[in-house]
Write a structure and sequence with these properties.
Layout: E1 2-5, E2 9-12, E3 20-25, E4 28-33, E5 36-46, E6 51-56, E7 59-66, H1 68-75, E8 88-90, E9 95-100, E10 107-108, E11 113-119, E12 122-127, E13 132-137, E14 144-145, E15 150-154
Antiparallel strand pairs: 1-2, 1-7, 3-4, 4-5, 5-6, 6-7, 8-15, 9-11, 9-14, 10-13, 11-12, 13-15
Length: about 160
């Protein structure tokens, strides 16, 4: 597991640290590490993007977590971030369109399910990287698509 702290410091955990961590209440933890006491508050979190704002002893840190699968997805060029603010959604990998969950004209929010794509014998739900109105859908249920094939566009 890797942690990128404040967009500059990279920390790699190869084993779980030897610490005591007790949940005090929702979003607040007491940590004892090397006989030093810390109070950690989770200020905000985005589980989808694995980002957290954590306050430890009144100092705030922006933390982004990455595991080996995130690195592999990046190496293969399948990052969701490559589509993040575009007006179009493209297939991240070759596959077959199993279902289209939206229609032209639908208002959607960031994170909404759009299309189910079967790839490598797995069903992958393509989620919206932004909010907006669906302008066009370029595929139909049952279509086979290649990587980077245009699936839909926003107004």
């Amino acid at each position: 597991m890797k942690a990128i702290i404040n967009n500059s410091y990279n920390l790699e955990l190869k084993e779980i640290p030897n610490w005591d961590c007790i949940k005090v209440k929702d979003g607040q933890f007491h940590i004892l590490y090397n006989n030093i006491s810390f109070v950690a508050n989770v200020v905000s979190h985005d589980f989808t993007n694995k980002t957290f704002e954590i306050q430890i002893n009144n100092t705030t840190y922006q933390v982004e977590l990455k595991d080996r699968y995130d690195d592999l997805i990046h190496q293969l060029g399948l990052d969701v971030s490559s589509n993040s603010k575009d007006h179009q959604i493209k297939a991240l990998m070759p596959g077959k369109v199993l279902d289209i969950l939206i229609n032209v004209g639908d208002e959607i929010n960031e994170g909404d399910n759009l299309i189910i794509l079967e790839a490598m014998k797995m069903e992958n739900i393509i989620k919206s990287s932004r909010g907006g109105t669906i302008a066009s859908i370029f595929v139909s249920k049952g279509d086979s698509v290649e990587k980077n094939a245009l699936l839909l566009s926003f107004e």
